[in-house]
């Protein structure tokens, strides 16, 4: 191995090592010999006394030598390492140096200590710095007096809440969460149709507050959002309320600590909160989808900051959403749905599946208006106490959906325009007909929520079909 080390004897030590302190007197003796001695110190350039010490507190030499133990003693000839020994073993030191006796008053043997290069924080920081130098995104230099959080607000990078400054080191650390190449194009991000790379997603994941292990989920969500089927551009441009809802299934949900239980649709869980937020920041900062510009929502909804949760598969009486949609049970996946917010359902009295199904169906009729049908989708989030009613009766998910759909057939005479003194409604040509509230694939059932409370929830959708949005499921890849 070629090294920049000087010929002669070279020792790597640190003061915070009892064995290094033990051999300090031996190094002082070697310094008086005919063979030059150079000592590199990892933590204190004044240690040890009475020898020539080179400051290696930046660990450049130690990392170059792939050092694991201190003290390590080398013999260098013509720039090549010809011998080395770790720790203190008198016989090995005497053989390597050609000097004897060495340290006659010392113990025969003492093991060394771990090199500072093995410190996880130091290794991670070095890896971050190395990764940061390989990033391709444009760097923006802030003035000495600029506050980095305020600068993000002023430059329009924020969703209205403070963001984490995406320093090169933080972005490099985020990229360790995936095996995918930083330059890989994940999707073409609407509305500006910009190539969105893994690195660009990582930048926005940092800003959102994600951990590196969340990045594969964010990448899958971005892929799903940028499909023609999901139609992110149309979802932005509509004046309706909706934004992307991210539903996570599979092993990764528990692996990264997502919430599928108490308050699953609310605040308090970092993974839920930041994954959904990262997707929204990608749409804003990469795709150009900003409120008041392409984003034309009349009111919007709080879920447009972030709307992400995991399905409670372990407690569910039914197959999970991603399995229903064609993936294997042990696959991790995200399903994106264009949702307009959460509508609570209270039914604390139904103890039979038929009563509960009718009750849920009555509430679903209001999506997005009791007199409109077939044009909008919905997600029904069934909580454990309501699911228990169906479980105990042996109702499968397919049967629950079939029963709901049967109760969601609209009589045309009562829902056409003008009926009931309400101008809104379906075309008058449907008078006398029966119209389904939802298309066959327009009602998704998901199990989530806390174990106490006879409540469920509806997440209403945007228009389906051409010009609208369809739910999209994508596998999460490492």
Could you explain the architecture of this structure?
The chain is α+β, with helices and mostly antiparallel strands. It has two domains: 8-117, Glutaredoxin (3-Layer(aba) Sandwich), CATH 3.40.30; 148-475, no CATH class. 30% of the residues lie in helices and 21% in strands. The protein contains 17 helices and 20 strands. The chain has helices at residues 18-22, 24-31, 60-64, 90-97, 120-132, 148-154, 168-175, 198-208, 215-225, 232-237, 251-255, 270-285, 321-324, 353-364, 384-393, 397-407, 412-415; strands spanning 8-13, 37-41, 53-55, 69-70, 72-77, 80-86, 88-89, 109-110, 113-114, 185-189, 194-197, 243-249, 308-310, 333-346, 376-382, 409-411, 434-436, 443-447, 455-463, 472-475. The strands form six sheets. Strands 12, 13, 14, 15, 18, 19 and 20 form a seven-stranded mixed sheet that branches. α8 (198-208) crosses α12. The chain starts with 7 loop residues before the first strand and ends with a strand. The model has no long low-confidence stretch (mean pLDDT 95).
- How many runs of DSSP E, i.e. beta strands? 20
Q: What is the CA-based Rg, rounded? A: 32 Å
pLDDT averaged residue by residue: 95
**Distance from first to last alpha carbon:** 35 Å
Whole-number total of structural domains: 2
How large is the share of residues in beta strands?
Answer: 15-25%
Number of alpha- plus pi-helical segments: 17
Largest sheet properties? 7 strands, mixed
Summing up helix and strand content along with how strands pair, one would put the structural category as alpha+beta
Proportion of residues in helical segments: 25-40%
Stretches where pLDDT is under 50 for at least 5 consecutive residues are none
Overall shape: elongated
